[in-house]
């Protein structure tokens, strides 16, 4: 069969979907995107072929996937609402569409799959024993993808830590928990324990890694998983200090995340209940072993953390004009 070098992106307006689309486009791929609001998407990715549709509609996903070589399943339920009722049906629609089109599925993975027994170093083969509802759903999603691979659907999963970047979504930990979008950084809130490391994935680097892996399709097995290491500090609090430096406010206070309030209100607020379940990810170090990815690509794309944070904070409106100019001048030293 003659392939069209076309990628269908589900979730192209989200952080991972956007950056994967950008990286594939740089390599000459034709980008197709399905969205309930294609007019909004066209301002973000003007080169993409935007189709109006819903990832919950199997027929619309199947029609959008016709002649596609790759389906990037980067769509998630908004916030923490109704994951089981939305995430699993959307994935089933993608699997059916990929099977009909003969396309490979690319699925951005997380470390939610892993329970506390898996840490501190996560390999692709590390057993997944989640103790949270969202983690269990993530495991089920990967199980469905692996079963689909046994039925002829090729699958690529790239797991990473918490995303951040210029196009990260409002419900990311970085924008929802660490700093306040739209205003200069006056303080940084840190959810982790002192001395505990945490994995961060800069979205443009992640998108580039995915695109490079996609180019290795002919060498891959039907079901492939890779870990993206991203930026890692042995003491995760150092990441908060790097935010202060990138924002030009090295003396800004680093405040503790109000877990006591989140846990106290968790019986009454769904979002807080879901956040409380994931607290263990901030209490123990969780580092992703990227040895397999490096062996495949030769290296992992890695933007210096100060430059990555500057770009992220600027896009979020968190840098005053004077800081932007000064920081941009010094980025060459990163």
Automatic annotation (TrEMBL):
Domain NAD-dependent epimerase/dehydratase, chain residue ranges per copy: 7-223
Gene Ontology cellular component terms for the protein in this record: cytoplasm
Domain of life: Bacteria
GO molecular function, one term: aldehyde dehydrogenase (NAD+) activity
Protein name according to UniProt: NAD-dependent epimerase/dehydratase
Organism lineage: Bacteria, Pseudomonadati, Pseudomonadota, Alphaproteobacteria, Hyphomonadales
């Amino acid at each position: 069969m003659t392939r069209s070098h076309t990628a269908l992106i589900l979730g192209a307006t989200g952080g991972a979907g956007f950056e994967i689309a950008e990286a594939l486009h740089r390599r000459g791929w034709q980008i197709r995107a399905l969205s309930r609001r294609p007019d909004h998407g066209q301002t973000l990715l003007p080169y993409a072929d935007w189709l109006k549709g819903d990832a919950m509609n199997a027929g619309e996903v199947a029609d959008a996937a016709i002649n596609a070589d790759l389906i990037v399943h980067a769509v998630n339920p908004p916030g923490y609402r109704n994951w089981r009722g939305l995430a699993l049906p959307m994935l089933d629609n993608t699997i059916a569409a990929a099977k009909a089109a003969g396309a490979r599925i690319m699925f951005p993975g997380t470390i939610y799959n892993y329970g506390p027994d898996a840490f501190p170093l996560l390999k692709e083969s590390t057993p997944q024993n989640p103790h949270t509802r969202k983690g269990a759903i993530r495991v089920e999603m990967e199980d469905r993808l692996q079963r689909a691979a046994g039925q002829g659907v090729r699958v690529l999963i790239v797991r990473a830590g918490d995303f951040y970047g210029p196009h990260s979504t409002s419900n990311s930990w970085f924008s929802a928990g660490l700093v306040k979008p739209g205003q200069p950084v006056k303080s940084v809130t840190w959810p982790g324990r002192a001395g505990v490391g945490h994995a961060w994935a800069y979205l443009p680097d992640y998108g580039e890694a995915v695109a490079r892996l996609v180019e290795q399709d002919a060498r891959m097995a039907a079901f492939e998983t890779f870990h993206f290491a991203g930026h890692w500090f042995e003491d995760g609090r150092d990441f908060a200090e790097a935010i202060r430096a990138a924002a030009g406010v090295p003396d800004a206070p680093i405040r503790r995340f109000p877990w006591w309030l989140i846990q106290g209100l968790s019986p009454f607020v769904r979002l807080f209940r879901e956040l409380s379940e994931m607290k263990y990810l901030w209490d123990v170090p969780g580092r992703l072993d990227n040895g397999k990815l490096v062996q495949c690509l030769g290296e992992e794309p890695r933007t210096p953390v100060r430059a990555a944070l500057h770009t992220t904070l600027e896009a979020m409106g968190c840098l005053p004009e004077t800081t932007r100019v000064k920081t941009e001048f010094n980025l060459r030293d990163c």
